[in-house]
Specification:
Number of helices: 17
InterPro entries: Xyl_isomerase-like_sf (IPR036237), Xylose_isom_bac (IPR013452), Xylose_isomerase (IPR001998)
Distance between the termini: 27 Å
Binding site for Mg(2+) 2: 276, 279, 315, 317
EC number: 5.3.1.5
Protein name: Xylose isomerase
Helix content: 40-55%
Number of strands: 14
CATH topology of the largest domain: TIM Barrel
CATH superfamily of the largest domain: Divalent-metal-dependent TIM barrel enzymes
Strand content: 5-15%
Family: Belongs to the xylose isomerase family.
CATH class of the largest domain: Alpha Beta
Number of domains: 2
Bound molecules: D-xylose, nickel (II) ion
Strand order of the largest sheet: 7-6-5-14-13-12-10-8
Mean pLDDT: 97
């Protein structure tokens, strides 16, 4: 990766390129486990992990919450005389950050990058002007776009949904925004395009026609797919499941629900899952569950890396810190074949009271180290084979004989039932959960 983009104001003065110093380092601005060029399981860490920075949390969010105003004063906005100038300064700050951190990818919503105009045409003009500048900076630095998306939840027109809005005019407005965001993604060579349907759901069933809304959502996804493929887009489309917030109920509830939806509407060839740890938790699952579920259906795609707070029930979007969680996540990801078009996007934000410019770096460094440590542990789990060996042996009765015949669909219920009557007692076999949990902890030591 080239040095950070020069010729602009330095927005993170005093912070140099972050380097790997190893687990014993006490430098808060150094990696302890993430050593980009180090090989794990025959592949460089950076190619396994494909870290991306989320434009919205890192350069747009200002620390405000429902109870308090902004606490993060961004110098890139403060020193601009117009919204478009601010957008360009923000872009400079972003590329300075990506390159100093050593993240090779980023993700954005259309409205993170450029301000909404007074008409769809003006919004498109604004976005494409910034996209042209982003393209130059990508070329100069080697940083690439992991995925783009459209913000279809912020504007009041989307209060009743975007693709699932009961008014056709709003659906058309949503389409114009998606089309432009796809154009922007293609222009930047994006490796994916994400749909997160924050308001594609309902607040009350009393005013909602569920069937029509879901049909409309599928229609828009199909049209978006066809448009992008028609323009030669070879990247992946992602659906990012989340059960609720801001809607009471969101149609993209969890991986299993989205898989059913994609298959029902014939979209499962072009769409994969973008799995967010905090969303898994909101759906009553753990991150590992969602990853394994997607992998089991060949629908694993990408990750929004963060964590929630198990003591409360909303999307706190904190930076990941639990090595156990990242080790299990990487264990699922590696076994699913690793990332191809996807990556680890830090859909995470620093806390309202984290007001030092260095806090944004330390947050990402911690998250990157957590996934690097998780990767090392996961590779150990795979190399050592104890866990997979146990699982294989647990299902061994389906590998040959009558079990294999059953699994291949070569048996009727009568035949199977007849076997059941002669087998007598079976099934009192330990699942060995505690042993397996203890083994996982052993892999986490001495990273
Ligand atoms: C919100 C989502 C959002 C998506 C992109 O909860 O995580 O940030 O990742 O629209
Ligand atoms: Ni997300
Ligand atoms: Ni989220």
């Amino acid at each position: 990766m080239a040095d950070y983009f020069k010729g602009n104001t330095e927005y993170f003065p005093g912070i140099k390129k972050i380097s790997y110093e190893g687990p014993k380092s006490d430098n808060p601005l150094a990696f302890k486990y993430y050593d980009p060029e180090k090989t794990v399981g025959g592949k460089k860490m950076k190619d396994h992990l494909r870290f991306a920075v989320a434009y919205w949390h890192s350069f747009c969010a200002d620390g405000s919450d429902p109870f308090g105003s902004a606490t993060h004063v961004h110098p890139w906005t403060a020193d601009a005389s117009s919204p478009m100038e601010a957008a360009e300064h923000k872009l400079d700050a972003a590329f300075e950050f990506f390159t100093k951190l050593g993240a090779e990818y980023y993700c954005f919503h259309d409205r993170d990058m450029a301000p909404e105009g007074s008409s769809p045409a003006e919004s498109e003009k604004n976005l494409m002007a910034i996209v042209a500048k982003a393209k130059e900076r990508q070329k100069a630095t080697g940083v690439n776009l992991l995925w783009g998306t459209a913000n279809m939840f912020n504007h009041p027109r989307f209060m009743n949904g975007a693709a699932t809005n009961p008014e056709f005019k709003v659906v058309a407005l949503a389409a114009s925004q998606i089309k432009t965001a796809i154009d922007a993604t293609i222009e930047l060579g994006g490796e994916g395009y994400t749909f997160w349907g924050g308001r594609e759901g309902y607040m009350s069933l009393l005013n909602t026609d569920l069937k029509r809304e879901k049909d409309h959502l599928a229609m828009i996804l199909t049209m978006a797919r066809d448009y992008a493929r028609g323009r030669g887009f070879k990247g992946m489309f992602y659906i990012e499941p989340k059960p609720m917030e801001p809607s009471k109920h969101q149609y993209d509830f969890d991986v299993e629900t989205v898989a059913g939806f994609l298959r029902h509407y014939g979209l499962d060839k072009d769409f994969r899952m973008n799995i967010e740890a905090n969303h898994a938790e909101l759906a009553g699952h753990d991150f590992f569950h969602e990853l394994e579920t997607a992998a089991s259906m060949g629908l694993f795609g990408s990750v929004d890396a963060n964590r929630g707070d198990p003591m409360n029930g909303w999307d706190t979007d904190q930076f990941p810190t639990s090595y156990t969680e990242t080790a299990l996540a990487m264990y699922a990801i590696l076994r699913a074949g690793g990332f191809t078009t996807g990556g680890l996007n830090f859909d995470a934000k620093i806390r309202r009271n984290s007001v030092d410019p260095a806090d944004l770096f330390e947050a990402h460094i911690g998250g990157m180290d957590a996934f690097a440590a998780g990767l090392i542990a996961a590779q150990r789990m795979i190399d050592d084979g104890k866990l997979s060996g146990f699982v294989k042996q647990r299902y061994a009765s389906f590998d040959s004989g009558e079990g294999a015949k059953f699994e291949k669909g070569g048996m009727s219920l009568q035949e199977l039932a007849a076997l059941g009557t002669v087998y007598g007692n079976a099934g009192i076999t330990s699942g060995k959960q505690e042993r397996l949990e203890n083994i996982v902890n052993q892999y986490l030591l001495n990273l």
